[in-house]
C-alpha cells in the first residue's frame, strides 16, 4: 500500500514550524505590549506626582536621552539574535565622540564628514570583533570584553587628561543635537528612521531572517546552507557602525566630551535589549521591543530624578528588570517548546497523518501473516 506523506509545515525564520512561529510572534507581541503598558503607567503615575514631568521640555529631554541608547540597542539586537553579544559598544561611542571631536575642533568641518568618520571608526571596531568571533571562533564574550578594555585604554592614551569643549565644536554639528523639524529634535528622528529600516530588513528579507535562524539553531542553519560566518560578521559590522553613529550623536548632543564618555553603557544597552524581549540565547526578539526597553530604562532614570530619588535605585531597578526579563524568556521558551511538542504529537495521532497511516499498514500486514 502506498502512503502519501504530508508536506512539512512552513518554517519560520528561527526554524520552528509555522504554528510555532505564530505562537512566538504572539508571545513577543504580548511582551512588547506589556512593556508599553508599564511605560504608560510609569509616566501617568509620575505626572500625577509631578505635573511638570510631561512638560514640552521634559518630553524632549526623555526622547533626546533615549535616542542614543535606542540606536545602540538596535545594533545590539542584531548581534544578540545570533547568540552573540557586543560589550564594546559603550567604549566605541566614547572613542568616536573624542576622535571626531578632536578632528573637528576649531574647524568648520562639514557634518557629513564627521558622520562618515564616526561610522568608519565604528565599522573598524566592528570588523575586529566580527572577524575574531566568526572566523577565529573566539567566544563573543571574551572578544568584546577584551576590545572594550583595549578601546578604553586607547581612548585614555589619546585624551591624556584633556577634554573636548562645546565651544570648540562647529555649530553645524552642535545643531544636530539641539535643532529639530517642526519641534521634533533631529536625534529621535534619526533613531526612528534607523530602527524602522533595520526592523523592516530583518522581517522582510530572507537574509535578515537568517540572523534568527542562526540564533535559533546554528547547526540547522549550517545544514540549510546559511553563511553563518558572514552573517555574524555582518551583525558586528552593523553594531559597530551604529555605535560610531551614536558617538557622533553623543558629540552633537553634549558638545563636551571627556575620556570616559559612555563608560558603562554596554551593560545598559544589553539590559535594554533583554528587557525589550530579545532572548539572550538568540533567535527571538525585535528591534522595536529593544527600543521600548531602552525607552523604559531611560524613563525610569528621568522619573527618579524628578522624584529626587537616589540614583543608586536606577541601577537596582535595572538589575531587577534584567533578572525578570531573563526569567520570562526562560518561561516563554519552555511554553513554546511544550506547545510545539503538543502540536507534533496531535499531528502524528490524527487520522491520515503519516504516522497513523504507517501504523495502520503495519496492522494489516500482521493480519495477513497470521
Automatic annotation (TrEMBL):
Major subcellular site: membrane
Give membrane topology per the record.
Multi-pass membrane protein
Extract the ranges annotated as region (Disordered).
Answer: 346-370
- Keyword Transmembrane helix among UniProt keywords: yes
Which key words tag this protein in UniProt? Cell inner membrane, Cell membrane, Membrane, Transmembrane, Transmembrane helix, Transport
| One Pfam family linked to the record | BPD_transp_2
Q: Where are the transmembrane segments?
A: 33-50, 62-81, 87-104, 111-135, 184-202, 232-252, 264-280, 287-306, 312-332
**Keyword match Transmembrane helix:** yes
Subunit structure comment from the entry: The complex is composed of two ATP-binding proteins (LsrA), two transmembrane proteins (LsrC and LsrD) and a solute-binding protein (LsrB).
What does this chain do? Part of the ABC transporter complex LsrABCD involved in autoinducer 2 (AI-2) import. Probably responsible for the translocation of the substrate across the membrane.
Descriptive protein name: Autoinducer 2 import system permease protein LsrC
Amino acid at each position: 500500500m502506498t502512503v502519501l506523506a504530508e508536506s512539512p509545515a512552513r518554517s519560520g525564520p528561527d526554524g520552528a514550524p509555522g504554528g510555532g512561529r505564530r505562537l512566538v510572534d504572539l508571545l513577543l507581541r504580548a511582551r512588547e505590549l506589556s512593556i508599553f503598558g508599564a511605560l504608560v503607567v510609569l509616566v501617568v503615575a509620575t505626572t500625577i506626582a509631578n505635573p511638570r514631568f510631561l512638560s514640552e521640555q521634559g518630553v524632549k529631554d526623555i526622547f533626546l536621552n533615549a535616542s542614543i541608547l535606542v540606536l545602540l540597542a538596535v545594533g545590539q539586537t542584531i548581534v544578540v539574535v545570533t547568540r552573540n553579544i557586543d560589550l564594546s559598544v559603550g567604549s566605541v561611542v566614547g572613542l568616536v565622540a573624542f576622535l571626531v571631536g578632536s578632528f573637528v575642533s576649531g574647524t568648520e568641518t562639514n557634518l557629513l564628514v564627521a558622520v562618515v568618520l564616526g561610522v568608519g571608526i565604528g565599522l573598524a571596531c566592528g570588523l575586529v570583533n566580527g572577524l575574531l568571533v566568526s572566523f577565529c571562533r573566539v567566544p563573543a564574550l571574551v572578544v568584546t570584553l577584551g576590545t572594550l578594555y583595549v578601546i578604553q585604554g586607547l581612548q585614555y592614551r589619546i585624551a591624556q587628561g584633556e577634554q573636548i569643549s562645546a565651544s570648540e565644536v562647529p555649530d553645524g554639528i552642535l545643531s544636530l543635537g539641539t535643532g529639530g523639524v517642526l519641534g521634533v529634535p533631529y536625534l529621535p528622528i534619526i533613531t526612528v528612521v534607523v530602527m524602522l529600516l533595520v526592523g523592516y530588513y530583518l522581517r522582510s528579507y530572507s537574509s535578515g531572517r537568517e540572523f534568527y535562524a542562526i540564533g535559533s539553531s546554528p547547526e540547522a542553519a549550517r545544514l540549510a546552507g546559511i553563511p553563518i560566518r558572514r552573517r555574524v560578521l555582518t551583525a558586528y559590522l552593523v553594531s559597530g557602525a551604529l555605535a560610531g553613529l551614536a558617538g557622533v550623536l553623543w558629540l552633537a548632543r553634549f558638545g563636551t566630551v571627556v575620556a570616559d564618555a559612555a563608560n558603562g553603557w554596554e551593560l545598559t544597552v544589553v539590559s535594554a535589549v533583554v528587557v525589550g524581549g530579545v532572548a539572550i540565547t538568540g533567535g527571538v526578539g525585535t528591534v522595536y521591543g529593544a527600543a521600548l526597553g531602552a525607552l523604559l530604562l531611560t524613563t525610569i532614570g528621568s522619573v527618579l530624578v524628578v522624584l529626587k530619588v537616589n540614583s543608586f535605585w536606577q541601577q537596582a531597578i535595572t538589575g531587577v528588570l534584567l533578572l525578570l526579563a531573563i526569567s520570562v524568556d526562560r518561561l516563554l521558551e519552555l511554553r513554546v517548546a511544550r506547545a510545539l511538542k503538543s502540536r507534533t504529537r496531535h499531528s502524528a495521532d490524527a487520522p491520515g497523518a503519516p504516522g497513523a497511516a504507517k501504523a495502520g499498514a503495519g496492522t494489516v500486514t500482521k493480519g495477513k501473516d497470521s
